[in-house]
Amino acid sequence: MSDERNYDFKGLSGDAELEALLESVRRDIGEAAPEPKSPPRPAVAPRPAAPVRETAPAREAAPAAGPARSGRYPETQPAQRGAPQAQPIRQARPNAARTPSAPERGGGQRQEPRPAARRRAEGEERELPPQRERIRVVHPEDEEPEKPRRGRFGLALGIYAAVLILLLAAGCTLLWFYLDAYEVTRPEDAMESFAELADEKYWSDALEGAFTVGETPFEDRGELMNELCLDLLRENPLEYREDEGWSESNMVYIVSAGGEDVCRVTLGEVAEGGDAGFGFTYLAVTRVELLASFTAPAAHEITVTVPADASLYVNGVAVTEEYIDSALTPESGESVGELEAGRVDELFRVYRIGGLYAPAELYAADAEGKPLELNGEVTDEAAAYALGEGALDYRLLVPEGSTISVNGVELDESYNTGDTLTPAFLEGFGDYGTLPELELWLVEGLHLEPEIEVRDAEGEELDEPAAADGELIYFGSGDQAAQDAHGAEASAFMEAYAAYLSGEAASEENYTALQALVLDGSELETALKALHDDYAENGLSVERVRARSGSFVPIGSTCCVCTVDVEYSAGEDAEDVETAYTIVLVMYGGVWLAAAVVS
């Protein structure tokens, strides 16, 4: 209690009141209470300390001349001179509910002062002069924050800002309505609405009565309207542009799809209920006019070149011969080889098909039904099909040093195989003499029977060849002496042979007479027996039999080869048929007999 002996306790009455005041100060500053010397009092539940304004001495007290008034109070240190006003100190609130420990209780609990005594002590405390104010203890949670003072300028600024915000909001709202009215009344907005609302049903109904095309076997009106018009509108977005002479009083637009003009659209103001505000008026479509170029497309024609034996189909319909135009030159392209380039008129036919509106679907097949390939670029006006592979191959046996021309084109050495051969039908006659050896030339892949011309080394044109086993055999210049010696025998045999084939001399007597002119055991005798066993006349009549001049080629002294031409008549309305027969004559028993015949 020595720290309290310098305090001035004037004005305090009674030990109890002084003790209560000191106890309150100790609790506020967190100092443990001294052990009381008085006997323990009854325990009273501690109450939380209420925040009170307490003052501490501001002026240094004069040192006491003598000991303290009571020996129970400790001496106090002289107070430091400081500011005349009290300074607030924030301090954690002591736990009012905490029960003092045993050393603090000093063997007993302190009894709270009576309420009346506390009020009297507080009253006396408030009467202390400012310089005697004690230190005020304020807990942070009990301290009220100081409210900033607002001046009149801040209030006016806030009101001005609020009014300005309201004016801006009203202006923005008004501007939004103005822009909306402007947008919905623009001609572009009406055209966009038309493009969105014009669906497939709308166009189909509009085109039903306006679409105009001619009738052809290859196209249907409904399919044309769907392909030329509706497909174009389905697959392409609608676009519009101002028509010539457009003005605000004459708002006319051209609507197109896929680059093709479709219709002309006219806009006008809505008469009733068309006011959109702000002086704007709603617009609406007043007229839609389909363009003739869209509803009545122009017809076109197409020329198609196909092989002469091919069949042509347009949109699945077969094209008849009435569409063939012989005045047109076929576009053969690269499908024709050099040996047949001069015969394209014979190889191809040209069809001219008019009255078409849509691109045509073409299909061509050869004589066997196999599809043909298109040759070159195909347009809406022209198309050409390539020839298939040619099926005609020729083996030409010619004398050495000969020159060959096919369809007017002279063959180069690439066609010469370099081989020398004896004709196949002469291979069994080597015992009669020296058989001729001829050069082999190959011509393959032709489509038409060729026109062949062969000249020997001296430039002389050789006679028509003998045809045997797919070979064309040119023997060279004949022997006139052999022709003079054996021409009669050759003609006599051929007259009997042709009469038997035609049926004019098909009796057993005629057959027996024919056998007398044939070499026994030869291939010709075997062939005649097979023909007689299954005989069928050819329906022709023999008109003329003639041994070809210059065709007699001797093979030794007892064998020769010659060619005999026979002309048959097929009737009054049919053309005559000419056939060349190559005969091998041999001498047997002093008589010249036929040993082989090829044609």
Structure summary:
The chain has 599 residues and is of the alpha+beta class.
Write up this protein.
- The protein is an alpha+beta fold and 599 residues long.
- The chain has five domains: 1-142, no CATH class; 185-295, no CATH class; 300-384, no CATH class; 392-473, no CATH class; 480-598, Nuclear Transport Factor 2, Chain: A (Roll), CATH 3.10.450.540.
- The protein has helices at residues 15-29, 102-105, 115-126, 152-184, 187-197, 200-208, 221-235, 292-295, 344-347, 480-502, 508-515, 523-533, and strands spanning 89-90, 137-138, 238-242, 251-257, 260-269, 275-277, 280-281, 283-290, 300-307, 311-314, 317-318, 348-356, 362-365, 382-384, 392-398, 403-406, 409-410, 416-421, 438-446, 452-455, 466-468, 471-473, 541-547, 553-554, 559-569, 577-588, 591-598.
- The strands form eight sheets. A five-stranded mixed beta sheet has the order 18-19-15-22-21, with no helix packed on it. Strands 23, 24, 25, 26 and 27 form a five-stranded antiparallel beta sheet that branches. A four-stranded antiparallel beta sheet has the order 3-4-5-8.
- Strand 3 and strand 4 (251-257) form a beta hairpin.
- The longest helix has 33 residues, at 152-184.
- It starts with 14 loop residues before the first helix and ends with a strand.
- Residues 1-5 and 42-113 have low confidence and may be disordered.
